[in-house]
Amino acid sequence: MNVVFSHGKESGPWGTKIKELAKKAEEKGFEVDSVDYQGIDNVDERALKLREKLTFIEGPVVLVGSSMGGYVATACAGEPACKGLFVLAPAFYLGGSVNFDTVALPESTAIVHGWRDDIVPVENSWRFAKQHSAELHILDDDHRLISTLPKISTLFSQFLSQLETQDAN
Predict the structure, then answer these.
(1) Over the Cα atoms of the chain, what is R_g?
(2) Among 5, 6, 61, 116, which is most exposed with the fewest C-beta within 10 angstroms?
(3) How far apart are the first and last CA of the chain?
(4) C-alpha distances in Å from residue 149, one per residue of 59, 143, 156
């Protein structure tokens, strides 16, 4: 299985969170990649770039995204190869062409958001999770989710373990 990361607007393809979560995925034997969206400010253009990237990946995929990358990963989560979606402080309902109330999702979808996020309202993740019956973790952190990264890393590892179990059945 492959894990493909999508970074946020102000980040890069191998930022702190992605490096930490990639390490967890690699420890479990997943192939890891991170798309570089630097210089692309339009969220829908980023989603198009991810869709194109997915056409070159063989096998099932787990999409992971943070902030704007969460928008991008979720926009592409309906692709047939996508078996899981794990997003951090996703930029839901803040513009772009995706209707997040009707977007297609894989069975395994988890959202992590910080109570003190002053960039993307935590209520947006709550609304999305309620609409789609998605797993939601709200942590005592801000938008960057750096102070709770060890907890997020554990949640991500558990998420991947659940996918492995599903894949084996």
Answers:
(1) 14
(2) 116
(3) 15
(4) 28, 12, 10
